[in-house]
Amino acid sequence: MNRIQRLQDVLIESNLAALLVTDLLNVRYLVGFTGTAGAVLVTQDEAFFITDFRYQDQAANQVQDAQIRIHQSGVYQEVQAIIADRNIKQVGIEADNLTVAQFQMVQETLSALVKTTSQIVEELRQVKDQSELDLIQKACEITDEAYQHILGFAKPGLTEIQIANELEAFLKNKGASSMSFTTIVASGARGALPHGVASEKQLAKGELVTLDFGCFYQGYASDMTRTFAIGSVDDQLRKIYDIVLEAQLRVIEHTKAGMTGREIDALARDYISEKGYGDYFGHSNGHGVGLAIHEAPAISTRSNDVMVENMVITDEPGIYLPGIGGVRIEDDLVIQKEGVHVINQSPKEFITI
């Protein structure tokens, strides 16, 4: 069963006559189109990809499982022509992806009843097929290689920005199309910033350096964090490193299909709290990864998302001490029936350069 057919099953179960998909990641997921202008109209028994003249050749080469329509006056006008021809009386829209102005235009253009929907395709995207897992695996392999390269490149006196630039250049030379988010390089006291984007600060002896980075490979993301030392660090920093690593490993050891996001989050959070640092771990323990760097399921204290085989999630506990520094360690995991597969292979033992 292809992805369009899976969506059509959802439409039938939901008693929804058609769904207009405008989120470009969802468009790519459903029909394979990677351009920047296009939409998919899926009915219970047909599917149409709609774009303009600029993308007709690209669509012909990429689009699968949908009829291609090249519009002359606008996507919504083409949708109206299709639904009028088929006497479709109800069309769902992706409310999360439309501005108020776009929503009003849809209502004004379509003769059908417009129904707001949320996360229909995103829910389908949570469970990866083998082709998706292979691409995420490749993205993680490139990320692992980049980390090994940086361990040999980093030294005192280099700025965080120089580290980030070297890392990103390496990733692109290995086949990454782009970074999956803004590269984080946070050294010394800046390590207490969970999202400490690389700065002009120089690396110095006696500090920890946290790298949080990833890339897109053929549309799919990787996300990894490692923390290493520049020379000897004080006992407190080493202590929190060991605590974070043990918390991260507990998630790997105990996570499996059927658990909720909050249950997984608690595996790391409870251990960090037992060690006295619960107040210094203020973010969720993870999130889904795929076509988007942050997608469902959520791994947080409030998440009731249930893990299903072949979901891909991150495991990223951290401790952040203001004015002192911080530690985060992160891997990408594939949910399995009785455990997880750890995609990243970069070492996690305490490394000093």
From TrEMBL:
Creatinase N-terminal domain mapped to chain residues: 3-127
Annotated signal peptide: none
Family: Belongs to the peptidase M24B family.
Keywords, alphabetical: Hydrolase
Domain Peptidase M24: 135-336
Name of the featured protein: Xaa-Pro dipeptidase
The keyword Hydrolase is annotated on this UniProt entry: yes
MF term (GO), any: hydrolase activity
Gene source species: Facklamia hominis CCUG 36813
Cofactor section: Mn(2+)
UniProt xrefs under Gene3D superfamilies: Creatinase/methionine aminopeptidase superfamily, Creatinase/prolidase N-terminal domain
Keyword Hydrolase listed: yes
